Amino acid sequence: MKLLLIIIEGQLYLATIVAIFAAELGFLFWGFWSRRPIIGLIAVFVAVPLIRTTVSAIRACFSSIRSPEGLRLPQSGSAGLHGLVEEIRCAIDAPPVDAIVITGDFDARAVADSPRSWLRRRRTLVLGLPVLTTLSTAELRAVIAHELAHFSSAYDPFAAWVYRTRLSWISLRAALDRRLATPVYVYWFIRWYVPRLNAASAEVFRRHEFAADRIASRIAGSRAAADALVVFESGARFADGTHWPSIQSSWRSADEPPRPYRQMLTWNARRESPDALNALVADGTELEDTHPALRERLERLGEPLRPPPAAVRSAGEELLGAELEQLAGRLDAEWITQHGASWQAHRTEYLERRAALDRLAALESPTPEELFERAEVVEALRGSGEALPLYESAAERGHAAASLAAGRVLLERMDSRGIALVEASMDRDDNLVTTACRILSEYYTETNQELAARRCEWRASRHATRVRLGEPSTPPS
Length: 477
Hints:
- By secondary structure, the protein is mainly alpha-helical.
- It is built from 19 helices and four strands.
- Among the domains are: about 1-60; about 370-470, Serine Threonine Protein Phosphatase 5, Tetratricopeptide repeat (Alpha Horseshoe), CATH 1.25.40.10.
- It starts with a helix and ends in an 8-residue tail after the last helix.
């Protein structure tokens, strides 16, 4: 009831905001047509931007839930998964599912949207390919039961209403910010009302999550439901922390762009150390979290935390067979279309740097400039740790940019020895003053030396002024 009242309150606020915009627009047109000189003059300059702002505000207030993007799973070739979904749907008496969509994310969602061409709400079950290649069939059964529980007649319409209300406020703020036209009263509404809406709706959503967990436990068993929660969380962390970082840096070792989704067919995202498992339950539930913490969900199920048991076959292999590999291939093709050119550019740049490093490393007596160039390549390829001695060597031989780079690396480590090197770089080369002052200012700010940071900002400002006036940085005595 509390959330219902807050939502109604929010709808009234949104209606008031739109009404004020419309009233302002009406007032300007009235002044223009009634030949009120001042109002008419204002209308000439203000009417068009105000019309655009008003239209944007109205559109934001009627934001709709978008249909999920992904690969629509056909009945042919995927009868196993469709059959499992239908079996679970009947068991929990959920409404019909109109489509199953496969995405590339570690994701499982129940989405209800209302396309204009449909007379009723369209319900879509979204499953990520990484989920299908990680969970066992028993665990996937629990996940599907949990998601279909969100389609229940009591939850579905109300959740959609709450979601649209939150989306309307987010869209309104974004639309007005894009036009740099957020009035003070709208900003006050957002600051005062939206946190209350988020807190109240999050509390209700968490209760729905617990209820969906109970349904998953009834359909798949409490142990399978608990294992599904743990595997889902640990698998998502494996994808974000291990799989995708390796894909993003694969241009260092591979000659061809990777196939990230085909790799998921054989990955092992279930393996977790005891420390990693404990980290999964370390965080508690925050006020605006829409999902309860994993520890609370396991406690409600009455099941202890345990390492994910081995899965002989993934749910995707068991339910989709050869269709799983075809889906992975289609997702890989989309990934290469989107990221292939960027990956190839990184690969080309990497090979060029490797060649440059080999050339520079072969020099018996490099000049300070060649030492500095080599240090830059080493830093790009291997990190600042290996580059620092080269920077310092070039700096000792009077290279200003090398002195600046060595000082930067030291100050990033909070080593105060870098201050002298950065100062020396400015003395050697006037063109480095702006960059050097920024580096020093950031270090002083990090170490709570506000006065020193301010002095660096003043020095950079004075230098910029002298450059604009064509004066030397150091005035003659």
